[in-house]
Amino acid sequence: MLFTIGRVCIKLAGRDAGKYCVIVADEGNGYVTIDGQTRRRKCNVHHLEPTSKTVAIASGADHKAVVAALKEQDILVEEKGAARTPGPKPVKRASTKK
How many domains are contained in the chain? Predict the structure, then answer.
C-alpha cells in the first residue's frame, strides 16, 4: 500500500500545498495523520502525492521524531516560532484632519 506509516508525501491541496510531510498514523476510510513541513493534521489521501522515500518512525510519532527523520532525507523543516529578524517599525504620524 502506498500510504503507510513513514511514507514521505507532498501535500497537493490547501495552504500547505507543495510541502513535504510524513504519514504518522492511519485514520481509516482514506484519511491519515500527517506532520512535517505541514501542520500536524488529519488529511485525505487524495490530497497527497506519495514519493518513493520512506522514514523509520513509530506510529503516532511526535513532531521532533518526524523532523529528525526528514533531516536524514535532506528535507529541512522550519521550526514554528523561530526567531526572525524584525524589520523597522512603521512610524505613526499625527493626523492633520480636523
Answer: 1
